[in-house]
Protein 1
Amino acid sequence: MGSQNAHEISDSPNTQETIFDIDHRIEALLATLPDPSQSAHSPQLIELRRRRNALVPLYQLPVELLLAVVRFYLKEVAAVYGRHYSHLMKLSLVSMSFKNIVEEGSEFWACIGAALPIPGVEMCLVRSRNQPLDIYLDSIKYVVQNEGPSINTSKWDEALKIRRTYEKAFLDRVLPHFSRVKVASLKIEAESWISLQTVLGSPAPLLKSFSIEGRGAQDPLLFLQ
């Protein structure tokens, strides 16, 4: 039986292989690729990296400890409101174990950020299941973070239109879940206040904090009276 090339992969992993051995094989395989930037699509590299991850002690931890790692990370690193979603996306790319834990951990998706794109809002509402929600809405921040490069800052009317469209889409999706809301901080245009009328009188047994900052109105408190 002929010897196997350094970058070839057997059908079953060698129980004696080490991370160093796999790194060497990954380097050898990368050297044979005409375009290393496409390495993510190589079945052989995907398999080698899967084997490598399986040898890393972190990935061998019990699920309970991995959950604790994710909770600590979100508390310490993603403490600024509205940043949970982007950090969850990064964590889900670490490994399949992290991906499963992040996607199944409903508590991790219960913070809906101030400038989160609507597909992210929808994902958080689904994956948070019945968890109490922290809701933050700031359409100006949304425009700056998501639309800024495509908008001329002198076109205020265009920016205002985008803000109002975002606010409506955000509230249309979130307000049906108002009974789950624990914290709500809303910075919205006066035109968006009408959307709140249907829920302000609704039961909100979990609500601990509610703040609203109106824009474009002389008396923002008038709406709440």
Note: Residues 114 and 136 are 4 Å apart (CA to CA).
Protein 2
Amino acid sequence: MTTLYRFPHAEGLVHLLNTKPGPNTLLSTLHVHSVHGSTAVNGCHAPEPDLLATKSLSSFDHIVCDFDETITDHDTTSSFDTLACQVRPDDFHAPQMTWSEILQAYLDDLDKIDVGDLCHLNLNSTKTEEQRHLDCYSGKKPHLDPRSIKGLECHTDGRTFTPEPQLPVPKIPSLQPWVNSQARKRIVEKVSLDRVYESGNLVGLLPAQIREYGRSQVRLRPGVVEFLKAFVADEEEKDVLQDKGHKDPQQQQQQGQAEQKKGELWILSVNWSQDLIRGAMDQVFGDEEATRRHLPDSHLISSNLLFSEECHEVLQRRKKEVLAAKGQGQEQEQGHEPEDGPRDETLPNATNPTLISNGKVQVRCLTGTDKLHAFQKIQRDYAVKHDLALTDTKWAYLGDSSTDLGCLVEADVGIIVGTSKSLLAECERSGVKVIDLVVKS
């Protein structure tokens, strides 16, 4: 049976790093509080004292971590609306829907099975219900099944989306219902994200404003912060000791190859802004330079709010008064950190024009199936880069919700943070054992 380890109180996580690898040492600091999904004895779940001996919790090389409600102590999605209301320039139109209205529409969509019910974004549409029905189904049955939907048109500007072309293969077959559920949810997530765009809620923000909000307003879990700080500090200390050592070149090369397999951190999130995540991680690592060192661009995988120059036509359409200008709208929309590396913010404005959020989000991760795809790719790419077999590297994954279940099971060490009842129920339905660990008093 697959086993995950849950820390109801994140303060216990740091003991995975403060002790030497080995079940006996861990048992001296951590206590098995309860077991979920194990075989009942006399009607009760009886924790066994040697449960930690079945798997060394300290035996991992790298960490992949969820963000919202794993590193943070709250969901940060509403932060974008709060920030936009505070800093949006007066010359931009106010959003067409309030955040509470968008949230309620999203919750309503989750309850819908009929795909036709999702095609109501254009409130001014003159199409009849029957026409929208035909547009959405394209002759298919009205069932929210990604295998039967080739395209779902919900917008007057003709934008369409499709579900992911291929579902990930879970580590254990019992997770297949979870995969199917997450795939269906992806349709609702995309519709909701498009609704946010059309409403104009995320227009008018600067990257620096979003990052500062993450740095000053996003609340973090102290136990996870302590754990991540200790994790990167351990590896930095090893690097310093290696630099001070005097070894022959061959020995240094062999040791360097071994240490390539240790101590890296990835964040894998369904959040909409990498700037917000980086700002929050500045709290963990201390400053932007340290965040850039411990969390390079390739190690932050999430969707991302897009930015354009102020004269871009997308932004001009959002303004109360559209100014005609030669060449207006010819610039390409862009993320504020292009693929060839982050822009140099020290450049003068003439060569580094101000970028403003245009309300669009470049989608990378929306649901648990997206995250599972990404986690599997991280492992494959790392193995190829370092010429390793997939089994040569041990991965830990930290998550808090049912969206993380696929990654938690995929990891060599799956660690749940917090007390999510929905995740626990999903584990029990999937035949996954969960062991609660607390610090010994």
Note: The chain has 15 helices and twelve strands.
Protein 3
Amino acid sequence: MPAFAPSSYAQTNVAKAPMPEKPLVGHVNMQLDCFLANSNVDDLRAIVRTLLATGPAGTTAALTKIARKRIPSTIDKRVKPANTWFTVRKDGLYTSTPALEDTLKAARTLMGVGLGFDSLPILTEIVEVLNTIEFDLEDETMEEDLSRLDSDIAQACQSSREQIASGQIDDRVAARENLEAMKEALEKCRLVHETAEGDFPLEKAEMAVEGKWRI
């Protein structure tokens, strides 16, 4: 942030210094930056949602474009280490931890701005870890998190298909590899965790990866 605000923002008397219709410089003015730095997340979310709903045409596209550039460079900090996603219960079976939900939120952030293929490696690694552990499907915490994972993979696939349709894929080879890795992880997961009754906790995900992908 610059040491001094532009002259049109430096005055405290709004009548003497009306806010310009267009920004004078390519950064946030000091007063608004102070607000952004000190607001809570809920307020910022509400404000952004209102801006997107009521702002001029192109606001959503502009925000999405900026997010697509920003999020990939910071997402690794939000993904928790794989060895923290699950913990062993007293009976030797595994159950999920809050770190898993934090990691799922990171994946949702990517797919939410149209980067579905970028979210797949995160989700695939979770499935791969599931393939190495034993858990109880009647464990309420585990059941809820597996349901979220199932829905998130399905949503990531939908986001990926939209990414294809919009021509937003930079590396088609990597996209294919990400998709194939997810398919393989889900196939193994069914072999490992399908119940005797044929129940499988990631059925929606399995259906979502099937079909033709024109990458």
Note: The first strand starts at residue 86 and ends at 88.
Protein 4
Amino acid sequence: MKTAPNTSGAISSNEKTFPIFARKLASGEVKDFTGTTYKLTVWLNSEKAYYAAARPKIVELLEIALRTFMDTFIHHPAVMELSEHLRRLIQVVIPFCHMFPEAELKSWYHSDQVCSFDDPCADRLQRVILDTNTSLSRVPTSSVRDNAPPQETVPAK
């Protein structure tokens, strides 16, 4: 993924890459899942990744990653490694939630703020982060490396 979305070439390149990432995340193949979550984690670690046209695609890719994890990998022998890839992917997005200007997301972080309009992207982002946290908490703790408890992926209010 290109990290300089200010140019139409980078945006165009990203637009071509999003469907490839979606296909690989949904493939059910461990190598595709881990490779794609890694690439997304690197790309999403930059503020430049969160331009307006990319935000709905980012949420869609997070939803696909969660769905694939729950449908395909939750009982996989490598569930711990796979859960760490998913956890890192979700955790890298959380510091950039402010890049989603949707009111519901802001109210999630600032519970005293009342918002007056709905935006499906914000609802979807919030839902995928919370669902991922819930799903990862179901990974058997006996499988956790060093018997450490699963990490919280949603910041405290």
Note: The first helix runs from residue 8 to 26.
